[in-house]
């Protein structure tokens, strides 16, 4: 399992791009975790699934509400990672109003989640292999803090806990 001091898994996630720009077409685009985290302080949070109750009512909204404060405290980017496809993550991001605040990164085949050792088997609930709920502070691609939630809990991966952590750095 990923731990403090480890580098992020060298995998590719997907991000849905809503607006076509020069060199960037509309739709899913690959995100190389290693290069996108290089030289940055990134607040990463992961959750079991888009549009699910706690994820939609508490987890994402908390990071949206504190995005500006996190940036003032030194966070360059906020990443939300979930085992969903880029189209779902894009639609969920629009519904949650994350534009300019959170990058919604799809881990469709759970490559990142598996490499991090943070899978959650929800096959019995019809959801397959998903991600555990967690947050981590990453500096230049290296995990500086990792907070993994106990099953069914939402106590240590929230935006307020991340903000306190970043302010103490």
TrEMBL record:
Its EC number is 1.11.1.27. It catalyses: a hydroperoxide + 2 glutathione = an alcohol + glutathione disulfide + H2O. Residues 2-169 form the Thioredoxin domain. It holds the Pfam family Redoxin. The keyword Oxidoreductase applies. The active site is at 55 (cysteine sulfenic acid (-soh) intermediate). The keyword Oxidoreductase applies. Transmembrane segments: none annotated. GO terms for molecular function: thioredoxin peroxidase activity. GO terms for biological process: cell redox homeostasis; cellular response to oxidative stress; hydrogen peroxide catabolic process. It comes from the Bacteria. Keywords: Antioxidant, Oxidoreductase, Peroxidase, Redox-active center. GO terms for cellular component: cytoplasm. PANTHER family: PEROXIREDOXIN, PEROXIREDOXIN-5, MITOCHONDRIAL. Thiol-specific peroxidase that catalyzes the reduction of hydrogen peroxide and organic hydroperoxides to water and alcohols, respectively. Plays a role in cell protection against oxidative stress by detoxifying peroxides. Belongs to the peroxiredoxin family. Prx5 subfamily. This is Glutathione-dependent peroxiredoxin.
